[in-house]
Specification:
Blueprint (H helix, E strand, L loop, with lengths): L3 H4 L2 E3 L15 E3 L2 H15 L5 H9 L7 H5 L5 H21 L4 H12 L16 H16 L4 H14 L10 H11 L2 H12 L5 H6 L1 H23 L10 H9 L3 H26 L6 H23 L8
Helix pairs in contact: 2-5, 3-5, 5-7, 5-10, 6-8, 8-10, 9-12, 12-14, 12-15, 13-14
Length: about 325
C-alpha cells in the first residue's frame, strides 16, 4: 500500500479500464500533470526544428488524452522536481528520435556531442552549443544541479553512462536472452530508476541497492520489453542497419512470423513481472529501510505506468 506522503502526490488510475494494459503493477498520475504538459510543450519548441520529424513525434508523444508519460511514470515525484525530470528526459527522447535511423557510427558521434554538455560545472547560459539539443540540455542540467547540489556528481555520472551505452552495439542479437541485458540500459531503465529516487529526494544505501539488484534487473527487463511490444507497430517498417526490437530478435531466433513473436514476447514480459514480484516478496521478509520501501512503491508505479501509457499513447499507433 502506498504511503500517505506519496499518495498525496498522485491519483491512482483505473488501469483495468484500458484493455491493452496488461501489467500487474499499479499506475498513477501526478497532481502537477498540467504544469508538466506545459513544460514539455516548451521543450518541444526549444529542442527540435520547426517542421522536423522529431518535432512531429514530440507533439504526437504528448497528445495522449490519458496523461503524459512523465506525469504518469514519475507520478511519485515532488512536482517541482518532476518538471525538471520531464524536461531533461524529453531532450533525450528528442535526441533519440533524431539519431535512431542514423548509421551506427554517425549515431555514436551525436551521442558524444550531446554528452559534452553533461558536466558538473556546466554553464547553461554560456555553453558553446553545436545544436539546439545541447543548448536546451545545458540550461536544464544547470537547473537540476542547482536544485540538488549533493546529487550533482551522481546525476552527471548517470547521464554520461546512459549516453555512452545507449546504442553501444553495432551488430545484431541472436537470442532474446542475449538482447535483454542490452535493452535494460538502452531503454533508459537505469537513468529512469535514478530519477525516480531523485524525484523523491531519497538515496539508497549501497547495502539496500545491492540487495535488490536482481529485482531491478527484472523490472528493467519488463520496461524495455514492454516498449518493444507496443512500439513494434511503428518500428517494424523502419529502415535500420541493426535489430533493436525483441519481436525481431525472437523472429530471428525461432524462425517465426511477427504475430507469433509478439505473443511470445508478451509471455516473457509477464514471466519477468512475476519474477520481479517474487524477488520483492522475498526481500520484504527481511527488514526494509523507509527509503527502500518508498523505492519499491515508486518503481512499481513507474513500470505499471509505463505499460498504461504505452497502451494508450498515440505515439504507438501513428507512424512518423
Amino acid at each position: 500500500m502506498a504511503s500517505l506522503e506519496q499518495t498525496q502526490l498522485y491519483d491512482l488510475l483505473e488501469t483495468q479500464q484500458v484493455p491493452r494494459c496488461f501489467s500487474r503493477f499499479p499506475a498513477g498520475v501526478n497532481i502537477a500533470a498540467k504544469h508538466v504538459e506545459n513544460a514539455l510543450a516548451k521543450i518541444a519548441l526549444q529542442a527540435s526544428q520547426d517542421g522536423s520529424r522529431e518535432r512531429r513525434r514530440a507533439l504526437i508523444r504528448h497528445s495522449n488524452p490519458y496523461g503524459n508519460a512523465f506525469a504518469v511514470c514519475h507520478c511519485s515525484a515532488d512536482p517541482e522536481r518532476l518538471e525538471v525530470i520531464a524536461s531533461l528526459i524529453e531532450v533525450m527522447w528528442i535526441h533519440d528520435d533524431v539519431t535512431e535511423e542514423m548509421e551506427h557510427s554517425s549515431e555514436c558521434r551525436q551521442h558524444a556531442i550531446l554528452s559534452r554538455v553533461v558536466q558538473v560545472d556546466i554553464d547553461g547560459a554560456n555553453f558553446p552549443a553545436e545544436n539546439i539539443r545541447q543548448k536546451t540540455l545545458a540550461v536544464l542540467l544547470r537547473k537540476a544541479i542547482d536544485m540538488d547540489a549533493k546529487q550533482a556528481v551522481k546525476m552527471v555520472e548517470t547521464l554520461q553512462i546512459y549516453l555512452r551505452s545507449f546504442d553501444s552495439r553495432d551488430d545484431d542479437f541472436d537470442s532474446v536472452q542475449e538482447y535483454m541485458p542490452y535493452r535494460v540500459s538502452n531503454c533508459g531503465y537505469w537513468i529512469s530508476s535514478y530519477f525516480i529516487r531523485w524525484g523523491m529526494g531519497i538515496e539508497l544505501s549501497q547495502e539496500d541497492y545491492q540487495s535488490i539488484e536482481s529485482f531491478d534487473i527484472a523490472m528493467g527487463n519488463v520496461l524495455g520489453l514492454t516498449n518493444d511490444y507496443f512500439s513494434w507497430n511503428v518500428e517494424k517498417d523502419q529502415p535500420t542497419d541493426r535489430i533493436r526490437n525483441a519481436v525481431r530478435v525472437l523472429m530471428k531466433e525461432h524462425g517465426i512470423e511477427s504475430g507469433a513473436a509478439q505473443m511470445m514476447l508478451l509471455g516473457i514480459i509477464i514471466e519477468e513481472e512475476s519474477r520481479a514480484a517474487t524477488l520483492k516478496q522475498d526481500r520484504l521478509k527481511s527488514s526494509v529501510s523507509e527509503e527502500l520501501r518508498r523505492y519499491f512503491e515508486a518503481i512499481e508505479l513507474y513500470v505499471g505506468g509505463s505499460c498504461y501509457w504505452h497502451a494508450t499513447a498515440p505515439r504507438y499507433q501513428i507512424f512518423e
